[in-house]
Amino acid sequence: MRTLSLTMREALNTEHSGEVPVFLLRITHALLEEPILISTDPTERLEESPLTYGTRSRGQSYIFLPMNFALPDETDGGVPAMRLTIDNVGRELINLLRSTSTPALVAMELVLASAPDAVEIAMPQFELVSADYDAEQVTLTLALNGLATEPFPYGSFSPATFPGLF
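Request: output the structure for the sequence above.
Response:
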């Protein structure tokens, strides 16, 4: 069970609220010297030249990039996957997608723009399972570790699988 602050609950449930929920994404990979930090909100001006907006949270600057989320659908038989479409992507993400054969990891957190240091929801780390990109946007498909969807218990004690028991 998650405990959200009253301010976050009001922001999520009120049609017109002065509060803005912000998703913070941290993309990590062994090929990256530093993680790629992305925010869904232009909370404040981070730099003058080049003009950059984003969110400062816990001493780190998350760059604002417009994005859309498609949450996982609840179908049986497959790994639940979330799709992110990010606009105005910088070269570092494209270079990572072109140069790696192992999946990057994506951590997501939900904060309020008025209190970016207080993490309301920290989601489990997702694996980047596929990416499509063009000159304008990148579409990332994220999934939880495949072990989360393995059947339990894995095997069954039957004459076909354990003939010596019967």
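Helices lie at 6-13, 91-99.
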